[in-house]
Amino acid sequence: MAPWTRTTTERYGVVKWNFVGKGEKHLSLEVGDTVCIQEVCDGWYRGHLARNKAQQGVFPASVVHLKEVIIEKQGLICLQKFYAFVKFLCVCTTTEMRRCGEAYGMLRVKQVQRLMWELMEWRSQLLSGTLPSDEFKELKQKVTSKIDYGNKYVSGPGCSR
Amino acid sequence: MPPPADIVKVAIEWPGAFPKLMEIDQKKPLSAIIKEVCEGWSLGNHENFALQIADPTNFYITEKNRNDIKNGSILRLTTSPYQTAVQLHERIQSSSMDAKLEALKDLANASRDITFAQEFINLDGISLLTQMVESGTERYQKLQKIMKPCFGDLLSFTLTAFVELMDHGIVSWDTFSVAFIKKIASYVNKSAMDTAVLQRSLAILESMVLNSQDLYHKVAQEITIGQLIPHLQGTDQDIQTYTIAVINALFLKAPEEKRQEMAHILAQKQLRSIILSNVIRSPTPINDEMAHQLYVLQVLTFNLLEDRMMTKMDPQDQAQRDIIFELRRIAFDVECEPNNSGSIEKRKSMYTRDYKKLGFINHVNPAVDFTQIPPGMLALDNMLYFARHHQDAYIRIVLENSSREDKHECPFGRSSIELTKMLCEILKVGELPSENCHDFHPMFFTHDRSFEEFFCISIQLLNKTWKEMRATSEDFNKVMQVVREQIMRALTLKPNSLDQFKSRLQNLSYTEILKIRQSERMNQEDFQSRPILELREKIQPEIMELIKQQRLNRLCEGTCFRKISSRRRQDKFWYCRLSPNHKVLHYGDLEESPQGEVPHDSLQEKLPVAEIKAVITGKDCPHMKEKGALKQNKEVLELAFTILYESDEYLNFIAPDKHEYCVWTDGLNALLGKEMTSDYTKSDMDTLLSMEMKLRLLDLENIQIPEAPPPIPKEPSNYDFVYDCN
């Protein structure tokens, strides 16, 4: 009967296999989810989803790929926001579009999409750890300004989101 | 129904008889089966018979391999291996040349089979063969003149049989006499030898050297590199391959102290350039076996560097320190002993300044930099070679970096040391050649100092990449990582010459590497792996639901349609929309295209959704079948759809554009509980699904998805957490 202990090195991870929990103690996970880990016992972790603290429970350690660093959140939140906007543009109706003062829904989708691909690529570059420090600084600046630009764009004139 | 597992159906041949179909019971002993077969053809003495597979391999069926027999195989009844061995043992000693030749041919053939080989070896067949090689040939020496072709065949079959028998690894190589080795070596040393005999002899020599340290010494005494080299100058790739294999074997087994000496001889005999012109640059394409031998030679040659690589610099050794002085002299064009340039202190500080410019880590005593192994002295060797043989490039690099004051300088000393170490890793210096590798590089055969040249090209690349990356000293490892990638990528293209390698590197600039990395990242998504497919399956309906909601919302907003009339086109409009509760379609005529929302009372007509029977599109629509409509162009045809409702009535539409057409057909299909199939839905789905997946899997980059589900451990024995969050 091993007791639960607090984890020291195992703090964060990315889910590499879907886990469908049974019962209320389990936390169901989807591949790509990021988790914060608090305790460990008998091959199980206890923790919560990085994006939602309220979703917590136990899950098998075997479905988690541990990462050393805190997973960068800022950019991800922006990307999620942009994606929500793309989703909105893809599925909004004429009236909603008119309210945005925007007749070129698809064009906007393409633009935001391109912005997203760019940001994803830069994010990968920043996290890859192979950029020389000068370039790292520059890219970081570029990303920040792109995000600002994107945020303005997404919350453009008359758009409710 | 599958046949019982233990029964195989086969056909059995016996010369001169009609083949017999038979079921073999794999549980019965083989001898019982043979007995049964023999009785079938009323042959006595079944112990003298055996079964063989009747295909070119001709192997004997034994208790061990009988499970390999497949249904439908053809077997042959034949003399038992023992009987055959006894007969051949006798026949090869025949006094008639023709009979003997025939027997040796059969023996060479039969020896491929391990069961036969075992029997023949048990009869002491190997020593019979060696005796024949040792003494026999002399007896025929006189005959040779008259019967030369016959003699060559005789010998070649003898040797073939020998090679085949030895190949089974039953007999140890250690047992052979010097006389035998001498004989074999003499075939190799003699020019104008029969090709088959030469090839077998080379094969035997290679095996001897590889399989016994004792024999290595004996063989090494009998043949010299000089005698082997002429065989490389022919055009027969097999002979060339066997020759290089013997050289490799001798090289590999040479004791350490002799290896450098041997390398020296190889260089003297110009082995490299002979291989380059007669093998690598020959019109015949290189086969796998040759590629392997060249790879082995390449590995063994580079392994000669191991010694220097593992030698630390001795800071007290004047000769070694002179090399560092020399580097300084070439770079800054200063005299080694500036006699009249002030005090020792001043000179010392001058040295220190110069060593800093040269990019050593330890400015005061650079010798310390070379005490790290690997790469040890090898790095210093490379630097000196670069300074001497590519003086301009060397001076340029050193001066260029020593004049920079902005922390962006690329330290020549430090990078040379790290680069040498990296090149040794890339070439796996010090590792034994692997069994099945064909990874040789033609460019390393184009220069006597190919490793040094390799270094010279790479150090210039490093300097270039450093600048491209605008790196500072804290980025050192990142630059090295990029340089490694550049070299590895250029090498995989197998450049033919060092120049070609150089130009490949030119094209692989830092920006190019970034591009390649990016495109690899884009294509990396292994959407085939199971958890990701599962996730896609799960997300897909969610997105589909979203699209469906949008289509229905659009229908509720309504659309203004153009009226169709068979007469001349008039701008008449009608409007249609879905009620907010999705139960009724309201529609009615409009005088003109509406601005803003259409009031409810202008749409008098009603069509309950429950009455809709079907939606028809394109040329099946009734209004497209009308006479006048046929003249309608194709565009209109693609925009037409019809609602078919209660008691065969129609409501005909022509959408204003493709987009609207998709929205309406999707919406109506959704109302009917059918699948939405428009192009618009497909592209929305693709856009949203690919973005959603990409976003969800963003943090999985560079993480290997397992192939099989990870094991789920047993439920934890308790849930008594340390912290209670609630």
TrEMBL record, chain A:
UniProt keywords, alphabetically: SH3 domain
UniProt cross-references to Pfam families, sorted A to Z: DOCK_N (PF16172), SH3_1 (PF00018)
Record-annotated SH3 domain positions: 8-69
InterPro entries from the UniProt entry: DOCK, DOCK_N, DOCK_N_sub1, SH3-like_dom_sf, SH3_domain
Any GO MF annotation of the entry: guanyl-nucleotide exchange factor activity
Keyword DNA-binding: no
Alphabetical list of SUPFAM superfamilies matching this protein: SH3-domain
Protein's name according to its UniProt entry: Dedicator of cytokinesis 2
From TrEMBL, chain B:
Matching InterPro entries: ARM-like, ARM-type_fold, ELMO_ARM, ELMO_dom, ELMO_domain-containing, PH-like_dom_sf, PH_domain
Principal subcellular localisation of the protein: cytoplasm
UniProt-annotated location(s): Cytoplasm; Membrane
PROSITE patterns according to UniProt: ELMO
UniProt entry tagged with the keyword Repressor: no
One GO biological process term: actin filament organization
Pfam families given in the database record: ELMO_ARM, ELMO_CED12, PH_12
UniProt cross-references to SUPFAM superfamilies, sorted A to Z: ARM repeat, PH domain-like
The ELMO domain, residue ranges: 319-491
Keyword Membrane attributed: yes
Origin: domain of life: Eukaryota
CDD domains: PH_ELMO1_CED-12 (cd13359)
Any GO CC annotation of this UniProt entry: plasma membrane
Gene Ontology molecular function: SH3 domain binding
Function: Involved in cytoskeletal rearrangements required for phagocytosis of apoptotic cells and cell motility. Acts in association with DOCK1 and CRK. Was initially proposed to be required in complex with DOCK1 to activate Rac Rho small GTPases. May enhance the guanine nucleotide exchange factor (GEF) activity of DOCK1.
PANTHER family: ENGULFMENT AND CELL MOTILITY, ENGULFMENT AND CELL MOTILITY PROTEIN 1
Entry protein name: Engulfment and cell motility 1
Provenance organism: Seriola dumerili (Greater amberjack)
